[in-house]
Amino acid sequence: MGDSLQPQLKVSFRKSIAMGPGKAALLDAISKNGSISAAARELGMSYRRAWILVNTMNNSFLSPLVETLTGGKRGGGARVTEFGEEVLYQYRSMEEKATKSVRTEMRRFAEYMRD
Amino acid sequence: MGDSLQPQLKVSFRKSIAMGPGKAALLDAISKNGSISAAARELGMSYRRAWILVNTMNNSFLSPLVETLTGGKRGGGARVTEFGEEVLYQYRSMEEKATKSVRTEMRRFAEYMRD
DNA sequence: CTGCGTTATATTTAACAAGATATAGCGATA
DNA sequence: TATCGCTATATCTTGTTAAATATAACGCAG
Hints:
With 115 residues, chain A is an alpha+beta fold. The first copy, chain A, has helices spanning 21-33, 36-43, 47-60, 82-101, 103-110, and strands at 11-13, 16-19, 66-70, 76-80. The two termini of chain A are 17 Å apart. The model of chain A has no long low-confidence stretch (mean pLDDT 87). Chains A and B meet through β1, α4 and α5 of A and β1, α4 and α5 of B. Chain B binds a DNA duplex (30 and 30 nucleotides) through α2, α3, β3 and β4.
């Protein structure tokens, strides 16, 4: 999350952020890894933190974006729900649109800044 | 800064935010009030916090966005430079473009969320 | 030459966020 | 039924950030 010259799309819900760049990345990582803990490791954050982010998302939307299983052969796991994929897709789509809409202006704006 | 259903435009510079919604509002308030402390009072923040924001902005861009005076009949004051006005204008312009570009999608997205 | 309102900054204090650690439950599998 | 990896917390500690407080400099006005 270093220097970013693009708009950050954040969707707020009662003071907390329901969806943003970090949570979107986490959804991707969960989707890819099949568990919250593996996703957390990949992103270099604590399991606790990742779990809190998931919890916030699930509480902010009409139905859960992430479903979890405990126990079982591999201890359990987590998956992004159909609805979660849809939310993520819409978010990415908006992110791309917003970014493209100011691309050239952003480049010019960057020239105002130190390096 | 409650629930926002619009993209937040943040321009980062070496881990700190060079320009964002809060700093843009501060520039407006300084422009209007002619001093950092009056602007801070209007926005309900401490002088210290406002000063830090100004300092970050001034250090992030090629030249200062805010100029200050100490002493004098009214104790001193601050003004937004020509360059600062330009930066603010460009920022507002990008903000509006980005917002408009995802307006309809945002409305649909909002229906996914609890109320 | 004192008071005023502001910028500017240092220092201390408090609030909050993050991290570390611990523990329990789950259920397939061996 | 013991083991394993993961979810799901609770609790405690640490670290970071923000707020509060204090102080100095500035220069005009009285």
